[in-house]
Specification:
The protein is mainly α and 99 residues long. It has one domain: Orthogonal Bundle (Lysozyme), CATH 1.10.530. Helix 1 crosses helix 2. The longest helix is centred in the last third of the chain and has 19 residues. The N and C termini lie far apart (31 Å). Keywords: Cell wall biogenesis/degradation, Lyase. One of its GO terms (biological process) is peptidoglycan metabolic process.
């Protein structure tokens, strides 16, 4: 996938698997960086200010600017990965799936 180098860089910076990042990109946007959903989710990782904005403000990214910044593929992946990191290393830390 063409976004793998950016995914690897963002994943390394935030401790998130690049494979997870690229899988989310494939499912959420099909790799289309300009996609805007009916619910106003933007870009490769389909970010929404209303969802990710609260957590991303902890990383110096204001929720009101997410829509504008999320149109840039590198920023979208960086912000999406920051949000995944919040979930993976915070709220969802230690959560396992029962078989």
């Amino acid at each position: 996938m063409q976004w793998m180098p950016i995914s690897e860089q963002a994943g390394k910076a935030r401790g998130v698997s690049p494979r997870l990042i690229t899988a989310i990109i494939a499912v959420e946007s099909g790799g289309n960086p300009t996609l805007v959903s009916k619910s106003n989710a933007v870009g490769l990782m389909q970010l929404k200010a209303s969802t990710a904005g609260r957590g991303l403000s902890l990383h110096g990214l204001e929720g009101t600017a997410i829509h504008q910044r999320a149109e840039n593929p590198e920023r979208n992946i960086s912000m999406g990965t920051a949000y995944l990191s919040i979930l993976e290393h915070g709220i969802l830390k230690g959560l396992t799936i029962r078989k």
